[in-house]
Design a protein that fits this description.
The structure holds two protein chains of two kinds. Chain A is 31% helix and 28% strand. In chain A, α1 packs antiparallel against α2, α5 packs antiparallel against α7 and α9 packs parallel to α10. By secondary structure, chain A is α/β, with parallel strands linked by helices. By secondary structure, chain B is mainly α. Chain B has 22 helices and three strands. The radius of gyration of chain B is 34 Å and the shape is flat. The chains are: A alpha/beta, B mainly alpha. Chains A and B meet through α1, α2, β4 and β5 of A and α11, α13, β3, α14 and α15 of B.
């Protein structure tokens, strides 16, 4: 028998026994029950919750997340409990689980910190909440605040830390052909000849000289740079492939950042897996909270490989590249030897291609050679340790491109110091 | 006493920060003031409100206002039961034999209730005669109507208080839970064997809700019944003739108190349930929640109460009118059905009699003259001695059990020092008890030796005053109800008449026997008539007999006895001569 049952029985008793005061008790019971049933849902409808935070963070940064509760109702919420789902990989303290009182027209702010300790695409939330009446007469009302997402960029380190010279000729190459004139570098005027572009006529000078003169430019051009990132797990040593693919991603991010800082346009082409390419609800790891790829959809690699990011310059473009690098995962997609040359067909002639891959074996070098023959300017960046990288460098020289050995790990420092000059 | 829980808690103690524990206690438990003062008082008031309603019904039926004097006792019993439940469930008392402790508690309450009902219902303070009577008749001490009813009520009150106490102790976050959940999560997982057993707190809240709702129904019913005026048995023959009394202010307050406190405790129960849930799920609570919870509950109750006070009340209400109409409709349909069913029945009956069916003649009242009143059994000295031994043994055992219960009850609640002093008192009492027992046996031996002499003295009607005083009196006449006293006067006369040769035959009615007596003792003819008439009224009439009626009958009885003595003395002298 619930309160409703009691109310009905009391009404009958009040009538049969003829005691008027029982009606008063009935009114009180009805009043308390009705208030409990009405007040909480009504107040909850007028409560707004928002999650305020910077949704992009660099590795190692601490991100402050604010949960702002606003009750615009005249009635208070006597209790509301909520729990914010925080990815375990980002937690840096106690869980955000609270039971609180929210007064009428009150705003409350709860702040917690997360530590961007690993690159990735993380889900913050959802926030689940429950509230109810003070007497337990009605069931608790439940609700939730939808999740937001946080992108943690890969680590960016300087070229010197990567073991690369800081003045690499990325992007800008000298051209022997005057077909490639750089309009940004005027070097004088000459008489107009048939076939010259009208856009290059220097009208002011022509008016002064009373003959048509056209501008002359230096015979050089800023070419685009594309980063070709090989994340096919089969190309890496099985033992340390996770570590080396992660290092390859850091290298790609560092190079992209360096080039954008140099105001050079840069693009990204990779054969890794971007979980955001999958349709439907994104899947996040229970252990870390990172975005996961769906194993069942890996049968068709073309579907899971992200589209190439064309070369552009500017900070916004860099963020776009870094976002993709934050999400990207290595996997069994397409081997580099099959994918590398085809992936660059859409690029313009003369583009510098920074090929980041595991090692500089013969097949890899042959692939890069095909790129040389196609008119590109490939540069090999091998990320796995190789004691005989001198041979690779020599082979690359013979095949018409440059090779660099970019490894990471304190165990390799000694080796790098002794071989640094030779390798470069 | 080795504390069972200490081993479990001690294992955690090394890893637990005392400040964390204190913080958890503050966050997830009610303050000591609420736990030890406010809540027990509220629970007690809830139970007492229920008991007051029951008392109101008993008062209405019995027309005896003395029952109201039991209300303070209910308050004390409920409070004691709640505190004892609270105390007994403490982790320090895990090794206590709870059943025995509770049995001791009940036993002590039985004694207290008997003494209190003695004072309230048996005419005030204890008289020597009354004590002597009860010492000789232990069963009469307990087989007493008001006492049995009061005991039943007390047990109900005690049990209800225990149920409430159990519910709220179960709802409160326990010390084990505080200790365990103050550990870091990793340590908790490592020590999962020490995890406290989960309490079904939601179920406990439901249990309390059910308790309160059913209690509410009962209290309303009782209050409603208490407004009926039941002056005589006639009202049961014609319920519609029952007149109505107004609702007493005390009951009104109790009704309000019951529902108000019930709602408040319901809110408190919900808070306790939520506190436990938050602790178990590692949810940090806002200090404000606890503070605001009860305040808001009270505010809601107050606002609703005030608003309800301005609403129309009574049968004028639409729902009241609907119910009235429904009830009349039901009665109307029942009447029609009965009428339709009775027509063929009457027609069939009229075929047999040829006359219209007459109303059934009322059943004649029972003739009191054909009822037989057994004379009181004759008390011989031998039986008296055996009864005395039996009663002595009974009381000795009773006192021993009572003392043991008292010591057990007190000992467990005292510190060691206090226990020692209690033990000394117990030892002294034990020595006194042994001495008392020895003296009792000596007395029994003395009586056995003097038995032949005593028998002669008993046979002798004109026994000296001193020996009369030594005889055991089995009851105090004044303690009996007026009706019983009059019966005693008559039956005593019948016994004396039998001793003097005018025996009453088993088939004789009181009036027939009165005729025999008048023939045998013409000098007390009028007294015998008066005595017989008073007896018939006391025995067979439902007319009230007050204490004012007794002295007159007693005087008549004394006259008869005096006359009989005068008559017997010359005979005795003749015999001696």
């Amino acid at each position: 028998m619930g309160l409703i049952g009691l109310i009905i029985l009391l009404l009958i008793l009040a009538f049969l026994l003829g005691v008027d005061f029982i009606y008063y008790i009935v009114y009180v019971c009805i009043g308390v029950y009705a208030f409990s049933r009405w007040a909480v849902p009504r107040t909850l409808r007028q409560v707004t919750i928002s999650r305020e935070f910077n949704d992009h963070a660099f590795l190692g940064e601490s991100v402050t997340v604010d949960l702002v509760w606003t009750n615009s109702s005249r009635l208070p919420l006597p209790w509301v409990e909520f729990g914010e789902s925080i990815p375990p990989a980002l937690r840096s303290g106690d869980q955000m689980q609270r039971a609180m009182y929210l007064g009428s027209r009150q705003e409350r702010r709860f702040t917690y910190q997360i530590q961007a300790g690993r690159r990735g695409y993380y889900r913050l939330g959802p926030l689940r909440l429950a509230s109810g009446d003070l007497f337990g007469l009605v069931d608790s009302r439940k609700g939730y605040l939808e999740a937001n997402y946080l992108t943690v960029y890969p680590r960016i380190i300087s070229l010197t830390k990567l073991g690369l010279p800081s003045r690499l000729p990325f992007g800008t190459i000298a051209s022997r052909q005057r077909l490639f004139e750089d309009p940004a570098r005027p070097m004088g005027t000459r008489l107009y000849q048939s076939g010259d572009s009208q856009r290059h006529i220097n009208w002011k000078v022509s008016a002064h000289a009373e003959s048509l003169l056209v501008k002359r430019f230096e015979p050089a051009i800023s070419l685009e740079t594309a980063i070709l990132l090989n994340l096919y797990s089969g190309d890496y040593e099985r033992r340390d492939w996770r570590f080396h693919t992660e290092w390859a991603i850091i290298t790609a991010a560092s190079l992209a950042a360096h080039l954008v800082n140099q105001r050079q346009p840069v693009g990204l082409i990779t054969n890794g897996i971007d979980p955001m390419q999958f349709g439907g609800e994104p899947l996040f790891s229970q252990d870390s909270g990172r975005l996961l790829r769906r194993e069942e959809e890996e049968d068709s690699p073309a579907n899971v490989m992200p589209p190439a990011i064309p070369s552009r310059n500017g900070r916004a473009h860099l963020m776009k590249i870094l976002e993709q690098l934050a999400r990207i995962e290595s996997g069994e997609t397409v081997p580099f030897t099959q994918w590398g040359a085809n992936a660059c067909y859409h690029l313009s002639w003369g583009v510098t291609i920074l090929v980041i891959t595991a090692k500089g074996d013969e097949e890899t070098c042959q692939t890069l050679h095909r790129l040389v023959r196609a008119g590109y300017n490939p540069i090999l960046l091998a990320v796995e340790p190789d004691y005989n990288f001198g041979y690779v460098r020599e082979r690359a020289r013979l095949l018409g491109f440059t090779a660099f050995h970019v490894t990471e790990g304190s165990g390799l420092d000694l080796w790098r110091q002794s071989r640094h000059r030779a390798v470069l | 006493m080795t504390k069972l829980h200490s081993s479990n808690l001690a294992r955690m103690a090394g890893n637990v920060d005392e400040q964390t524990i204190e913080k958890l206690r503050d966050s997830y438990r009610a303050s000591s003031w609420v736990r030890y003062v406010v809540r027990p008082l509220l629970m007690t008031s809830l139970v007492v409100a229920l008991m007051v309603a029951m008392i109101a019904v008993i008062r209405t039926v019995s027309l005896d206002d003395r029952w109201a004097l039991l209300i303070p006792l209910f308050f004390i019993i409920a409070l004691e039961a709640i505190y004892t439940t609270n105390w007994i469930k403490h982790p320090d008392r895990l090794r206590l034999d709870r059943s025995t402790y509770r049995a001791a508690e009940i036993f002590l309450w039985v004694i207290i209730v008997r003494l209190i009902t003695w004072v309230i219902f048996d005419g005030g303070l204890f008289g020597i005669d009354q004590i002597s009577y009860y010492l000789a008749n232990p069963l009469a001490f307990f087989l007493n109507g008001p006492f049995l009813v009061a005991l039943l009520l007390v047990m109900v009150c005690w049990r209800l208080a225990n149920i409430l106490g159990d519910i709220f102790i179960g709802l409160e976050v326990s010390e084990f839970e505080i200790q365990f959940y103050s550990l870091p999560l990793a340590l908790r997982k490592a020590r999962s064997d020490d995890q406290p057993i989960l309490t079904g707190r939601r179920l406990l809240v439901h249990l309390f809700t059910k308790f309160w709702l059913w209690g509410g129904l009962l209290i309303v019913l009782a209050v409603g019944l208490s407004t009926l005026e039941i002056r005589s048995l006639d009202v049961f023959q014609n319920p519609l003739a029952i007149s109505r009394l107004g609702l007493q202010p005390g009951l009104l307050i109790m009704l309000l108190l019951y529902f108000g406190i019930g709602f408040y405790l319901l809110s408190e129960a919900k808070l306790l349930e939520m506190n436990a849930r938050w602790l178990l799920n590692d949810i940090t609570t806002d200090e404000q929640v606890k503070k605001v919870w009860q305040r808001t509950s009270l505010l809601i109750l107050l606002v609703v109460g005030v608003v309800a006070a301005f609403l129309p009340i009574g049968p004028d209400l639409a729902i009241g009118r609907i119910l009235t109409a429904l009830l009349y409709a039901v009665f109307f349909i029942i009447n029609i059905i009965i009428f339709l069913l009775s027509i063929p029945l009457f027609l069939i009956l009229s075929l047999f009699t040829g006359q219209p069916v007459e109303e059934t003649a009322p059943i004649p009242p029972l003739n009191p003259q054909i009822l037989e009143e057994a004379p009181p059994p004759e008390a011989s000295s031998l039986i008296e001695t055996a009864a005395m031994v039996m009663s002595s043994a009974f009381w000795t055992i009773f006192i021993v059990i009572a003392v043991m219960a008292l010591l057990f009850f007190i000992r467990e609640r005292k510190s060691l020092q206090q226990v020692k002093s209690a033990g000394e008192i117990g030892q002294r009492f034990w020595i006194w008890l042994i001495e008392f027992w020895n003296s009792l046996w000596q007395r029994v031996g003395h009586i056995t030796i003097q038995l032949p002499t005593m028998r002669r003295e008993v046979d002798d009607d004109a026994e000296p005053k001193e020996s009369k005083q030594r005889r055991w009196r089995f009851f105090r006449l004044g303690a009996l109800a007026p009706r019983e006293q009059i019966r005693y006067f008559y039956l005593s006369t019948v016994r004396r008449a039998a001793e003097r040769g005018v025996k009453r035959e088993s088939a004789d009615t009181p009036l027939e026997f009165a005729e025999d007596l008048k023939q045998g003792w013409p000098e007390v003819e009028n007294e015998v008539e008066d005595l017989t008439e008073a007896f018939l009224k006391a025995r067979y009439s439902d007319q009230p007999i007050t204490r004012e009626d007794v002295p007159e009958v007693k005087e008549t009885w004394k006259d008869v006895r005096r006359q009989l003595k005068k008559r017997s003395q010359p005979d005795d002298n003749d015999v001696e001569e």
